[in-house]
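This part of the workshop introduces the protein records we will be handling. Getting from the letters to the tokens is the skill we practise here. The record below serves as our worked example for the rest of this section.

…
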Amino acid sequence: MIPLNKRLRVIVPTLQVILLVSAGIWHGILTKYEFHRHPELITGYGVAPIDILGKMNFPLLVLWLPVVYPITYGLSTSYLNLPAGAPLVAIVGVFDLAVLVSVALFWYGVIAEAEMRRHGSSLIRSSMRIVEVLKATVLAVTGVGAVAYACWDGHRLLLLGRSNPSAFYWSSVVDAIIGEPLLVIWAVVLIMTSVQDLMVAFRKSENKISEGRWHI
């Protein structure tokens, strides 16, 4: 029988990909059939599932931001003249495939890292203290960013619900109830990981210093 941890490395990434594909299909259905008649439905109910999944994958979202933001900005300002028809479909397909693969690999790594940390090891630790300090700083800053994003986004959803309650109230409530705790959980995980790895790095450095003095 396959051990639970190995099954989770397959089940969790697969589930994440299924959720992301389902949210994309749902958004596509609303865009195709409701855009002209009720465009607010797309904003209110088509975007919410994708928004929640984005918060569920917050660290990966941060990694994708330097790629996605310039592309989105370029498209919105017409700086990028993408070819229409089949070439555009191919480009979008490659981008979507890259997102799905990155989500699967990300959650495979998360499950593998959690399992290794239970046994005192890690996939992301380095023997160089300076690398560990930089990594821990990035993790801590990302964790603080998750808290800031949760506060800002919760306020945004509250204002959105108040400004247009008939169209956005329930989707905003669901998004806030599910999405903001996910961001807080990521913040706790990232900050705790940062502190733990710093403690391990400095403990190893102290041990090396002590061993060097002993040999002297």
Observations:
- The chain is about 85% helix and 0% strand.
- The CA atoms of residues 15 and 112 lie 16 Å apart.
- The chain has two domains: 1-121, 124-216.
- The chain has a mean pLDDT of 83.
